[in-house]
Amino acid sequence: MNNKTIFISVAAFIGVIFIAAVGVYKSQQPSTVASEQLPALERIGAPSKGGKQAKVTIVEFFDPACGTCSQFYPLINNLVKKYQGKVNVVMRYAPLHKGSDNVVKMLEAAHLQGEFWPALELLFANQQRWVEHHVSNPTRALAGIKTLNVDHDQLDTDWQSSNIAKIIAQDIKDGQTLKVRATPQFFVNGKPLVVFGYEELVYLVEEAVAEAY
Domain Thioredoxin, which positions (predicted)? Predict the structure, then answer.
C-alpha cells in the first residue's frame, strides 16, 4: 500500500468518525424545554444585549463568582457580534457560590442605573479580588462596582430592597424549574446545552440561526 492510498484511507476514516461524532452530538441534544417550563426561560426586564428584533436568544444562567462564566463572557460577546442583529443574550442570575446572593443583588442594582454590563465586566475581570476559595466577598464586590459611574446611595438602597430580592428569588426559582445545577447554563431558543463546551454552544447557535433565517 503506497503513501497516497494510506492517506486516502486515513482521511476517509477520520471523515466517518467525524460524521458519527456529529450524529452522536445531535442525538444528545433534546428538543426545547417542556411547554410548561417555557415561561421560566425569560424574565421581563432581565439584562440583555444584541438585536432587539433578533430571532435567536441565548439565555444564560450565571454566577458572577463563576470562573467558567468569566471565561465564556468574551466568547458570548463574539457570538452576538458575529450574528449582529440576529442573536441576543439574556442574563439570568444563578448565585450558587456562597455569598453570591448579595453580589447578584448589587449587579441588579447597577442594572437599574444602566450599568449592568460595565459592572459585570468589572467583576469578571477582578474575580481574584473578591472571590476566595469559591466564596464571594460582597463587600469587596460592592467596592468594585462603586468605582463605576453610579449613584452610591441609590445603589445601596436598591440592592438591599425587597423589590430586587424578589427579582433574584424569581431567577433562582426559574433556574430550579429548568434544573440549572451549575453555571454557566445556556439555552438557545429554548433548547438547553446538554453537552457543555464552547464549540457545542456555537453549533447550537449556528443551528438556531440557520433555522430562524
Answer: 32-210
Cell of 18: 467525524
What spatial distance separates the first Cα and last Cα of the chain, rounded to whole Å? 48
Q: What is the secondary structure of 136-189 as a DSSP string?
A: E-HHHHHHHHTTSS--HHHHHHHHTSHHHHHHHHHHHHHHHHTT--SSSEEEET
* CATH code (residue 207): 3.40.30.10
Q: Would residue 6 count as lying in a domain?
A: no
Amino acid type, 90: V
CA distance 110 to 149: 10
For residue 111, which of 100, 119, 123, 103 has the smallest C-alpha distance?
119
Q: State how many domains the chain has.
A: 1
Residue 25 domain flag: no
Mean pLDDT by 10 residues, the chain (213 residues): 43 39 43 86 96 94 98 97 96 98 98 98 98 97 98 98 98 97 97 96 97 96
> pTM (2 decimals)?
0.85
Q: What's the confidence (pLDDT) of residue 85?
A: 95
* Domain with 49 in it: 31-212
pLDDT of residue 1: 52
